Fold:
Amino acid sequence: MVLFILHETAYGYALFERVESDEVAQLTPEMQEAFTDPSRFAKMVKVRAFTPFQSAAHALQNINDVSEGIVNDFLRGFLAENLPSSSSKKKVLQLGVVEKALAGAIKDALSVDCVSDETVFELVRGIRAHSDKLLKGLKSGELERAQLGLAHSYSRAKVKFNVHRSDNMIIQAIALLDQSDKDINKFAMRVREWYAWHFPELSKLVSDHYTYARLVLEIGDKSSLSDGDAAKIGKVLVEGAALAGDTSPLNPALADMIIAGARASMGSDISKIDLMTVRNFATQLVAMYEQRARLSAYLSGKMNIVAPNLASLIGNTVGARLIAHAGSLTNLAKYPASTVQILGAEKALFRALKTKSKTPKYGLIYHASAIGKTDSKNKGRISRYLANKCSIASRIDCFSDEPTTLFGAALRGQVDNRVEFYASGEKPLKNADVMEAVLKSIKKSPVSADIEKDAKKKKRSHSDEEDSEEEQKSSKKEKKEKKDKKDKKDKKEKENEKKDKKEKKH
Structure:
């Protein structure tokens, strides 16, 4: 058996032939030592052929094809030219390839028996270690520099053409947002406990952490409060409610209640150095809240660009968590609705399967507003329905050419109708009717109009071709009928001539 080894380098393709064929002793310690010695390893393999790449761009193209298991014309020509024909029955030809996908492609393209076993891996390991000595004509260090340059180009191309790069921003933003929430809660509880020694009544009057921290900065020492500070405290309360998104009307007497509470407070006095430390800590907490608000706005903008329909359906935060848990929007679009439904509840699912108990009904989508306003007996049904709509919305966002929120709004309306159906029994609209209405409402762009014109032209040309084919068929049929008639006529004439001859003889 003759074994050839295909080795891909940064300079080009090399084809080696194994000289010694002791496969049994290949993995022994003695043979492993021989692999490390260049002179001994040179006796095991010899260079059969080598072809360099034409340029750095050509090298990058070939290495991309190798990684994807594609046999391009350059590699096909190299192997076809240098591999001997396997017509001889005495010698069996095999080609060793490290990449299994490439081995299968070469086998299909050139009908060569390709192997990717331990023997091939060991030989390639030795070839890589001694490439600069086996491939003559290369100067010392040239191969390493070429490998480094190709590695940089390959990595740069992969990062540049990463289709999930926008998804990565969403994944990092939602991870940072969750971490910010945890840190803010810890910092806020520490500020409350610290300042409560001086003004304990404020914790009962103000529940929002951001507003509380702003009031700590505004009030400072409770003994300095007076009736004239009510306007400042009221302004802080309004700004805190606006940042928290609380649309409920504020208690107009809350500022007066805080001032009255400060006068009748049972808290202890505080020194200037302690108050300064607490106020510095509260300043950091306020900055963290403002940073979180900016990060939330950034996430909302990214979701409106990357996954607008999913954001319209289930919200920015929950949609971003689904994308982050799936790894990318493409992965989420590939998931079935049953997987989207329990995404985030994997531990509970496997625990239920192990103990043969009830499986979870929902995962991350539990935080959606549609599930929150549904009765407990219908939460499982609405979560299954919502997961189905999330799967549709993610696929529209992933594979549509022009982003739009119309589908997400329509799907959100369907979910709301389904919630009303569970509550009142009112029959919801069909999904086909809703999608058809959305498609009609989308205005056609000039690009789509051009595409439609091209489609009509193709249809006309196709119909013309069909007409010409029908005409050809009909003409052929007519010619055949005429020929058959002529043949019948000739046959009859011949028969009549024979009859006349017989009659003449008689």
